[in-house]
Amino acid sequence: MSKPDTPAATPADQPRRLRLVSDSDQPTASPETPGTGTGPVLPPDPETERQALAQIANARAELPARDEAMFETFLGDLVRQVQPTSEADPTNILASLLAGTGVYLGARPHLRVGDDRHPLLVWPMVIGRTGIGRKGAGWSAAKRLLLAADAGFVASNIHSGLTSGEGLTQAFADEDEGDGTEPGKGKPRPRALLPTGDRRLLAFEPEWASVMARMRREGNTLSATLRAAWEGGNLSTLGVNARIVRDAHVGILTHITPGEFTAKLSSSDMAGGTYNRFLPVFVAQTQFLPAGTGADPALIERLAVDLRARLDQGATLGQLGFSDEAAYLWRRLYVEFGGFSTEDGPIEQFLSRAAPNCLRVAGIHAALDGTPTIQPAHLVAAAAFIRYAVDSARAVFRQADPALAQLAAYIREAGPQGRTRTEITAGFFQGNARKTRIEALLDQLIADHTIAKTQRRPEGRKGGRATEIFIAYEHHELTNNAPDQGKP
Question: What is the DSSP string of 374-442?
Fold first, then answer.
C-alpha cells in the first residue's frame, strides 16, 4: 500500500448553492481579500448561470432524495460549514468524515450486538459519475479538516494500494519485525507503514474498480481478509509467510463510477458477503465554483480544534450503550433495517448489514459528543444516512441495467392479467436469456415493489396446477383480493 496523493442538495432545495457567484447569504469577500473559498465577486452572467444550473440539475436528477436529518450532528455541522465553498455533494463529505473519524477513534469505543463486538468502523463506497460526481472534492474537504486536526494521522495512517490479504496484513508490520526470512536471506525487511504499535489504518481507494479486479483473481485472499477486518480484531493469512495481526482497526473509503461497479460486480461477489459491509453513497456535483479556493483557513483551523478535542475524548470511551429513549427507537430501526435478506435479490444482498452499520454510525456520533450513551438524535441522523445508502444502492442497480425498466413496462402493458414466466422468457427475451438472468431481474423488480408475483388457477376447472403470474404492482394492489389471486 502507498500514500495517496493529496487531492488538490438538490436544485429545488438548495438553489443558491448552484450559483457561479456569491450570494448575500454566503461567505463573501472583496476581490483583494483571499481565503473565503468563493473567489472574487463577478458580474452576473445569466446564460452561464442557466447552463450551470441545468448541468447540476441533470447530474443530480438520478440521485435519491436526501433527508437533512443526517446532518443534525457535530459532523453534520462541520459539513454544513465547509460545503458552501466546495463543489462536492454534502453526503460525500459526511461519508468521508465518518470513515476517517471512525478509524481515528480506534478500537476502544465499541458496541455490542448480542455476542458480537462492533468497532466504530464505517466503509463508505462513494459512487459518482466521472467529472460530475466530484468524488475527489468530497474527500478533499474532509481530508482538509482531518489534516488540520492531526496532520500526523493523515500522513501515517491513511494509505492506498490494497492488493491482497497478505499485503494488507503486511501494512501492520513494525520496524522491528522481520518477514519470516532469516537475516541476510530472501527479501529485504519491509519499511513500517504505520507508526509502531498503531493498528489504525484508513485505506483510501479512489480507483476501487482496480481493487475489484484484483480480488477476483484466483488465489487472491483480499476479500476474505476484508470480511475479517470489518469485524475488527485479529487478521491472519496462512500462506508461505503466515502472519497474524492483532487488534487491527481498518477502515475503507472507496470511489467508483456506477458503470464500473455494476459491470465488475458478479453474483459470486455478492454472495460472498464482502460488499454488504460497504455503504453505497450515490453523489453528484452541487455547484460550480470556477474561482473557488476552498474554505477559509481560519474556519478550518477553528473547526479542527474542536474536532481534535472530540476525537481525543471519544477515543477514551469503552463500550457504548443506549439511553432509554434511544433503546426504544433502536428496536424500531432494528426491525426496519433487519428486513434485508440475502435471498431477496442483489440489492438486499448488498444491504443485509444495514442494521449494524446504522449502529456504528450512531456510535461515531455519540463518541464525538463525548458520551458512552447513544441518544435518539444520534440514531435519527444515522438512520437518515443508512436510508440514503439503501436508496443509493437501488438507484445504482436500477439505472445500470436498462432491461429492468423495459421488463417492467412489458409486464405493466399486460394490465391486471400480468405475464407468465413463459411469456416473459419467450415474448420479452425471445428465448435468448439465461434463467439466472431472468430470475435476477424479476427478483429485483419485486424487491423494488415494481411488480408482484402471484398465482392463478386454471379457469373453468377444479384443481389443476396454478400458473405463476407477474403483475405490475399498481395492478396487483387493485386485484389482490380477487378470488383467483393468491390461491395455489
Answer: E-HHHHHHHHHHHHHHHHHHHHHHHHH-HHHHHHHHHHHHTGGG-EEHHHIIIIISTT-S-HHHHHHHH
- 420 phi and psi angles, rounded to 5 deg: -80, 165
More confident residue, 454 or 95: 95
Q: What is the DSSP letter of 458?
A: P
User: Are 118 and 111 a contacting pair, CB within 8 Å?
Assistant: yes
Q: Which amino acid is at 41?
A: V
Alpha-carbon separation of residue 487 from 395, 415, 461 (angstroms):
33, 19, 14
Which residues on adjacent β-strands are paired with residue 124?
Answer: 279
Residue 389, CA distances (Å) to 41, 63, 91, 283 in order: 37, 11, 10, 11
For 45-79, how does the pLDDT look when each residue is reduced to its tens digit (9 = 90+)? Answer: 788 888 888 888 888 888 999 999 999 999 999 99
Buried b or exposed e, range 160-188, using 16+ CB within 10 angstroms: bbbbbbbbbbbbbbeeeeeeeeeeeeeee
State the Cα–Cα distance between residues 334 and 11, nearest whole angstrom.
33
User: If you ran DSSP here, which 8-state letter would residue 281 be given?
Assistant: E
How far apart (Å, rounded) are the C-alpha atoms in residues 315 and 153?
14
Q: Structure pTM? A: 0.75
pLDDT in the model for residue 26 = 38
Nearby residues of 214 by Cβ (< 8 Å), 6 or more positions away: 162, 163, 164, 220, 222
Query: Taking 90 as the threshold, does the pLDDT of residue 325 lie above it?
Result: yes
CA distance 308 to 238: 38
CA atoms of 228 and 15, how far apart (whole Å): 44
In sequence order, what DSSP letters do the residues of 155-214 get, joined into one string? HHHEEB----HHHHHHTT--TT---SSPTTSSSPPPPPSS-TT--EEEEEETTHHHHHHH
Largest CA distance in the chain: 87
Mean pLDDT of all residues belonging to the chain: 82
DSSP state of 462: S
Do 89 and 285 form a contact (C-beta atoms < 8 A)? Answer: yes
Report residue 92 as a C-alpha cell.
460525500
Give the separation between CA 397 and CA 404, rounded to whole angstroms.
Answer: 9
3-state helix, strand, coil in the chain (%, to 5): 50, 15, 40
Lookup: cell for 98: 465518518
In angstroms, the CA 444 to CA 347 distance is 7
| Residue of 111, 109, 67 whose CA lies nearest to 90 | 67
117 phi and psi angles, rounded to 5 deg: -100, 125
Helix ranges (DSSP H) in 287-374: 297-314, 324-337, 346-350, 354-368
Residue-level pLDDT at 86:
95
